[in-house]
Amino acid sequence: MSESEIVGTPVPGRPDLLKISAEPVPVVPNAHHSTRTKARKKALDILFEAELRDRDLVTTLDEYIALGEPPVREFTSQIIRGIDEHMGEIDQRIAECCSADWTMERMPRVDRNLARIAIWEIDHSETADAAVVSEAVALATEFSTDDSAGFLNGLLATAMRTKQA
User: Fold this and answer.
1) Tens digit of each residue's pLDDT (9 = 90 or more) over 24-43
2) What does the alpha-carbon distance between residue 164 and residue 79 come to, in Å, rounded to a whole number?
3) What is d(CA 151, CA 157) in angstroms, rounded to the nearest whole number?
4) What are its GO biological-process terms (predicted)?
5) Residue 22 pLDDT more than 50?
């Protein structure tokens, strides 16, 4: 069996590991995710990569667009360009919504970038705030630590309460 024929399934609790099987197992991309959720997920990927590699957000976005597979959704571009334009303001809002003993630097990278996406949507989009929080919490549950969903829920609840009209 060649390496390209090896098909695996994620090991429960360890999405970075695959259980190898001789029988092909179809891999269905998160079919349960809506188009907007998939756009947010791709924005999270781009934000995470740009921060990890200390690269410009728009340059990283443009590289993803140039690859073309899979295509980058328009909503993903709006999120990334919006965050890039308002990054200082967004990070300030996140810092203000954190408790006194918790800083942005202490936040896991996934949580910090989910907060950036959500704050941008709360402050700069027409999406209902409750839907934004729900999406961020769901993505944190899927991709971050056990405590992340509750933490983000509290942070974003504060952001909604302190939102400027």
Assistant:
1) 444 444 446 689 999 999 99
2) 19
3) 10
4) DNA-templated transcription termination; transcription antitermination
5) no
- Domain containing residue 95: 34-161
Angstrom CA distances, 99 to 23, 54, 115, stand at 50, 26, 14
With contact defined as beta carbons under 8 Å apart, do 104 and 112 qualify?
A: yes
How many domains is the chain partitioned into structurally?
1
The alpha carbon of 114 is separated from its chain's Cα centroid by a whole number of angstroms, namely 5
Instruction: Determine the pLDDT at residue 29.
Output: 45
72 is a domain residue:
yes
The domain that contains 113 carries what CATH number? 1.10.940.10
Cα-Cα-Cα-Cα torsion 128, 33, 94, 43, nearest 10 degrees, comes to -110
Structure tokens at 12: 């429960």
